[in-house]
Write a structure and sequence with these properties.
The complex is a heterodimer of chains A (171) and B (417). Chain A has 6 helices and no strands. Chain A is mostly helical and 171 residues long. Chain B has a 4-stranded antiparallel sheet, covered by helices on one side. In chain B, strands 5-4-8-9 form a 4-stranded antiparallel sheet, with no helix packed on it. In chain B, α7 packs antiparallel against α8 and α7 packs across α10. The chains are: A mainly alpha (171), B alpha+beta (417). At the A-B interface, α2, α4, α5 and α6 of A face β2, α6, α8, α9 and α10 of B.
Chain lengths: 171, 417
């Protein structure tokens, strides 16, 4: 049992896991503080921070599962399966925070409009991402195509998670 | 005679400006295209990185009996320091696996490295423990003995001081003048503030005496410096600097070896095996073609959605941004990993689409995303380090490029009116 566990942990690069957790903590704290400063809305700040934590953990979980697949040869390139969705998620939350702070200052502010706007921009980004990724897959080696496809599969649920959270709790 | 209106004068100058700007865009497109270096004979350049190599090193760690209780901790510390050294040097891939040796006092480390960087430097980073200690000359040893050429480098001829690398806060490498008048890289040992007096006392007691810096059992002879009297009559503190190399690359290796931590175990290399590196066959032509096709498909998508604003606000600036970036890489002769370039394109393009939808505070959003990439670069390892560094620059570059495109389109519209 112990040997099996050791074998399992040998396949997971602890440097990468440590880096991922450090990135999650830093970006969550920065996002929460920045949004609180921008909007003075504690609820929105907490929802964004929670969304970042859940999405990052989801990406990390997929990375760990990928590393545990026996047919995967270990190398650092697979870390992109975590880093690409992470970058998308944080950028998406940042963009929604800046939009939210702008809308707050406008007349006739509608909270539902924020979540719909966020959903629309996420949808368009997903469309651009899928189109770009599918085009590139035709030109690149199979292993990198696999990394891109996996990243896509992680980005869509993480986007969905943060949209669901914002729509459910911001109303 | 027909009078020339100010509007016509403005249009005339705008046309000239537009021609110049079009020439700039056209030149960028030409330089960024594959095989364009063939036009200029004296600048032969290909975007591809040099050939990668892969090697597995086997290191035998020697665990002393008194260290057996802390064996696991010390092995982990050794792995961490070797990994940090290789990561700081910028190697693409590093895997370190430990396994039990033939006796309980031995642990084998298998270090697998894939890189395009200098093999000799990486050999040193992996195989040298680099345990440093300041030593003083033993009395009664004839250091001028011509029959023993190793007398000055043999640590048996020196007294060991307590000043090992652990004693110092950091080692700062800088380029200084040598006594021969040329330039070389020197290591300056920085002490912790609470240990200043002890080290200063050592320097003053041994001022102008011959001593040495022992590194892994070989001593580099040095002369302990003397404090210089200043104009006000106060004697300045001597700076303990050891000349290491005249080569910048070697100096960088020394800096990493000295500042990545002290490996707690003695070890030796038992074996090294050349492996076949994993490489991807992506070429410059495919990259450019992929970027052009992706841009075309995105344009069609926005036309179908009747969102023409996105073509001018996002698709055109993104295309120009990548053309500018490839041009910069070519002109600066910076080799890149083309598979990483593709991943960068796939990541940045949708993010720029997202950011182009931010109506206000766009600069602030771009700076925030750029800082995110910078954070990933600082914490990153392997390929991610290189990937995020370029993206931090590209995100910032997007703003002037999008401004340029928007001005260019406005000028074209004004002239055609």
């Amino acid at each position: 049992m112990k040997e099996n566990l050791t074998l399992l942990f040998d396949r997971i690069d602890l440097n990468e896991v440590g880096m991922s957790l450090a990135l999650m903590v830093i970006t969550t704290v920065v996002l929460a503080v920045a949004i609180l400063q921008l909007t003075d809305d504690r609820r929105f700040s907490l929802i964004t921070a929670a969304s970042n934590v859940i999405s990052t953990l989801l990406s990390l979980l997929v990375l760990v599962v990928v590393y545990l697949l026996p047919q995967i040869t270990l190398h650092n390139l697979y870390y992109f399966v975590f880093i690409i969705p992470f970058v998308f998620n944080v950028s998406n939350l940042l963009a929604s925070a800046f939009e939210y702070s702008r809308l707050l200052s406008e007349k006739g502010f509608d909270i539902d409009y924020v979540s719909r706007g966020h959903f629309n921009s996420s949808l368009q980004t997903s469309a651009v991402l899928i189109l770009t990724a599918l085009t590139l897959i035709a030109f690149i080696p199979r292993e990198i195509s696999f990394i891109i496809s996996l990243s896509l599969l992680v980005i869509i649920p993480t986007f969905t998670v943060n949209n669901l959270l914002i729509r459910k709790y911001l109303k | 005679m027909k009078k020339i209106t100010p509007l016509q004068i403005r249009k005339f100058f705008l046309s000239i400006l537009l021609v110049l700007l079009s020439t700039v865009i056209f030149s960028i497109a030409i330089i960024a295209s594959p095989q364009s270096e063939r036009i200029v004979q004296n600048s032969r350049f290909d975007l591809n990185k040099t050939e990668a190599w892969k090697k597995e090193y086997k290191l035998a760690l020697d665990i002393k009996n008194e260290d057996l209780l802390l064996k696991e901790k010390k092995v982990e510390e050794t792995k961490r320091i070797i990994f940090k050294r290789l990561n700081d040097f910028g190697t693409d891939e590093v895997t370190i696996v430990s396994e039990e040796g033939a006796t309980p006092n031995e642990v084998i480390l298998k270090v697998t490295v894939q890189s395009t960087k200098d093999v000799a430097s990486i050999d040193r980073l992996v195989t040298q423990r680099f345990f440093t200690r300041i030593v003083t000359r033993k009395d009664g040893v004839d250091f001028d003995d011509e029959e023993n050429p190793f007398v000055t480098i043999d640590p048996a001829n020196y007294n060991f001081t307590s000043f090992t690398r652990r004693y110092f806060r950091s080692v700062y490498l800088t380029e200084l003048d040598t006594v021969l008048g040329d330039r070389a890289y020197f290591a300056i040992f920085k002490t912790w503030f609470f240990r200043n007096s002890e080290f200063d006392r050592f320097l003053s007691e041994n001022a102008a005496k011959e001593a040495g810096l022992a590194i892994d059992g070989v001593v580099t002879p040095i002369t302990i410096p003397v404090g210089q009297a200043t104009q006000s009559g106060v004697v300045s503190k001597p700076v303990f600097a050891v000349g290491l190399s005249i080569d910048e690359q070697q100096a960088k290796v020394y800096e990493i070896l000295m500042n990545s931590g002290v490996i707690p175990l003695e070890y030796s290399q038992t074996e090294s095996t050349e492996l076949i590196p994993r490489q991807y066959s992506v070429n410059h032509i495919e990259i450019v073609l992929a970027i052009l096709v992706a841009t075309l498909i995105l344009s069609i998508y926005f036309v179908i959605r009747k969102d023409y604003g996105q073509i001018t606000d996002f698709v055109a600036p993104t295309l120009l941004l990548w053309a500018v970036w490839i041009t910069i890489l070519k002109l600066l002769q910076t080799p890149v990993d083309l598979s990483i370039l593709l991943l960068q394109f796939m990541t940045l393009t949708p993010i720029l689409s997202l950011l182009s939808q931010v109506k206000q505070k766009r600069v602030l959003t771009l700076i925030a995303v750029s800082l995110l990439f910078l954070l990933i670069h600082l914490l990153g390892i392997g390929y991610v380090k290189e990937f995020s560094k370029d993206l931090a620059v590209l995100t910032l570059l997007y703003y002037p490029v999008s401004l340029f495109v928007s001005k260019y389109i406005n000028m074209s519209r004004e002239i055609s009116r």
